[in-house]
Amino acid sequence: MALAEGAGRMRADPEGRLAMTTAGPLGGGFAICLDCGRAHPMEASPPDLPAALPNAMSKHHALLLRRGLSRTRDGYCPASDNLARIQRNLHLAQVMRTDVWEWQLPAACGEIAVTEPAARALAAALREALAERLGVEADEIVPSATPSVGPSGEARLSAFLHDRAAGGAGLVARMAEPEMLAAAVARATELLGCPEDCVRGCPACILRPDLNRREMVLDRRGGLALAQALSDRLALPESLRLFGPATRLAGRPAPALIADRLRQGRLTGLDLWLHGDPSGWDLSGWPLRRLLPRLEEAGIRPRVGILASVLTSAGMNLPVKLALHALARTADLHRAEALPQAGGAMVLCHLRGPADEQALAVTIPAEAVPGPDWGQGAAAPALIGPATAPAMGNRLSADRLIELGTGNARLLWPGAALDGPVQGFGRRFWDWLAREAPLEVGAMRAAGVTRLQYADRYLLQAHLLRLLAEVMRTAPGARAAALAVDLVGDDRPPPDARLLHHNFPDDALRREVLRHLLPGASIELRAKADMPHFRRLSVWLKDGRRLDILLDQGLGAWSVAGSQRHDFSAPAAAQARALSSADFVLRAGRTTPPHRPADDRSPTMTDAPTDADFLPLSPEFLRQHFPVARSLRRGNADLFAPSLRSTG
Ligand SMILES: [Zn+2]
Ligand SMILES: [Zn+2]
């Protein structure tokens, strides 16, 4: 989420993952006996010197002896005679999920240097300010500052706050609200003006016992200068006050903002405006579509304004019409003579509430077009303010839209016809299609199929590979057909995929698994720009004819009932075998969002870390897996930040 020019960017993540490591009380990690589990802290050893084993470990009594081992004759743990069984300098790490708020600071603030000690002082002051506003104890929130990676891969610094409670308590998430951020920065500026005029922070201003550690250097004066500079930059410049003085930063992506309003009972109506040329619309990847069922439940039927001139443009092709037709089940399509603008920015939507009406606008065209980037506010701020929606034009009939210029195409609704066990899904698919389109499927059988090609930007989840294999392997007349699949890389591969309906953690792996499922098929990972916005199964007949089957939601229209595990760490061939033999039930309907797998475990206060979450890890392992683990050498419960992505 971009903030105003020069103020950096921020994000809040309710599923933030913190890796805490500890180097132990002596700084050198722990010695751990592999035979009995006894552990003892070690001192940090000078580089290139072998670590000296603590005396307490060289001859020790067994803590809990492994099965099959017996004590030495004098009653000690057998490892006492074989010191290679004692691991040295192990650092303990723990991964915890909680609410995390990150403010990636600008590289520089005019004359003001953005340093880690200043950023840490700022984070500490923001913690005090937020705790005051929320009326909670300050030590329920943990401040920190670490290096992070900027939008173009450059080195930056981030100030972090996270909830101390494992699972998160929803405290720091409030910082993502623009009003809260502005108020907290203003209050932090006051707090940083210490009455004692201290240098490194003191109990009179921002210091708390958890920050009073040698390796956590604070620069109170630097933090004050930074807070003042950022405070000025957070104020919206005149050019961004699109809706007058009451203009605010949206503070979160447009779909999240709309969902929040809905939850808070502050939404009674919604007008959406489709900007750009239809050839650039990605209506099935438009996150707003996933909100439509919830809007429908709340009795809100959005109105969608489509510019009259694009209705007849070349980009308004069959797949776009198909997607609009699907949209029209839960929204009304309207003709619009012009799309609303505000101060040169594009208005995405008007939100009506019980008391007011507001408009949300973005300043760059790429974020105005319906698709994954719609209203993200990632590259430039998204703004909201009071505005009245212009009148909508005549209502458009979705059926009429489809009838016009679709040639010999026809529209089919499978509904629940294909639901059931995954075994036989392909057969059910073709049988159903043969009933609905007997001539076309008959031609496949009679003429024979030379080539089958499936293109889908969102074939990301593990179970979808199985569905595709089922459909391709059972296509009538296609026993000898060449198979081809076109995929696109996943923008946000999940860090912890483990269920059948989760996205693959890695594109190369996904492709490899699909290769094993469809031996001999040509499977290409293409650039997004080279792929259509719609999902299409193309069938080439031996007599030269071609049949295109456009699937509005693709195979992703069918989701897995319940949760089933899938081991994404197994070799590709083993994963393909597991997918082929997996037994699960498919249901049409609300699909799992393709971008972020739904978590089957909701974070709660009781979700405290267990012993099983603790892993003894070597510094090398940590450096490999946590790119900014450089503070490991300093030891002691530091925060490791995953690099900031611009999507949040
Ligand atoms: Zn032992
Ligand atoms: Zn002070």
Summarize the structure.
This protein is an alpha+beta fold and 648 residues long. It is built from 14 helices and 23 strands. The chain folds into three domains: 9-21 and 98-236, Gyrase A, domain 2, CATH 3.30.1360; 244-386, Endonuclease, Chain A (2-Layer Sandwich), CATH 3.30.870; 423-583, no CATH class.
Q: Kindly provide the radius of gyration, computed on alpha-carbon positions and rounded to a whole number of angstroms.
A: 29 Å
The residue fraction in helices comes out at: 10-25%
Bound ligands: zinc ion
Instruction: For the record, give the distance between the C-alpha atoms at the N and C termini, rounded to a whole number.
Output: 6 Å
Secondary structural class: alpha+beta
Number of helices: 14
- What is the count of β-strands? 23
β-sheet strand percentage: 15-25%
Task: Give a short account of the largest sheet.
Answer: 8 strands, mixed
Q: What global shape is seen? A: flat
Mean pLDDT: 83
Count of separate structural domains: 3
Low-confidence stretches: 591-648
